[in-house]
């Protein structure tokens, strides 16, 4: 092999090696959001709203008894992980949270997982995954429209609406950095401000979890979540009386 050919082959080998290294680094550097969305392709394509999650449980659920104040807690992972039977013992409260969901997904299942269960009220906690972009980029105004659509559907079916604020997030621990990155505090504040105004204008109940859980830096108090996003037992202990007060207020409101 001539010297020039040897040089060309060497350069090609180095280039290919460099390309392989770059590809590996790019793959390793994929954001948590990218990895999450890739892992959810099958769900997004086959059951976008994840109607199958609660279909059987809903079918097995009896209609509310006379005088029963059935309440549906409707949301994402923060609701999904909430042990309602421990926080509200003896209460006819139904958990219909699904981890990772955004408001477009929740709209798809709102009839099945809320309206058809005939609750007196629904507690809606959503928005943090929209801000993060779990199902794609979302403008704040699009999230607001989805909130409004859920409220309008509920009103038509005589279900009182309780809207919960989006919770603050923090980046105080190593495991919190990824969740914090996609959830800018300014976006959370903007969404909560709209929610509070919308509830006031439409005579709906607004649960201000944010106010009770935020620290002096505008972030979630460190002791309330290890990963900066999902409340621990102490976090839910703060949320419980706030929710109960809001539910009582909603039930006392005339339709």
Please explain how this structure is put together:
- This protein has 255 residues and is α/β, with parallel strands linked by helices.
- The chain has one domain: 3-Layer(aba) Sandwich (Rossmann fold), CATH 3.40.50.1110.
- The protein has 14 helices and five strands.
- It has helices spanning 3-28, 32-39, 41-46, 52-60, 77-80, 84-87, 103-108, 110-113, 128-132, 140-156, 177-181, 185-201, 209-213, 233-251; strands spanning 71-75, 93-97, 121-125, 160-164, 205-207.
- It has a five-stranded parallel β-sheet with strand order 2-1-3-4-5, sandwiched between helices.
- α10 packs parallel to α12.
Helices and strands in order:
Layout: H1 3-28, H2 32-39, H3 41-46, H4 52-60, E1 71-75, H5 77-80, H6 84-87, E2 93-97, H7 103-108, H8 110-113, E3 121-125, H9 128-132, H10 140-156, E4 160-164, H11 177-181, H12 185-201, E5 205-207, H13 209-213, H14 233-251
Parallel strand pairs: 1-2, 1-3, 3-4, 4-5
Helix pairs in contact: 10-12
Summarize the structure.
By secondary structure, the chain is α/β, with parallel strands linked by helices.
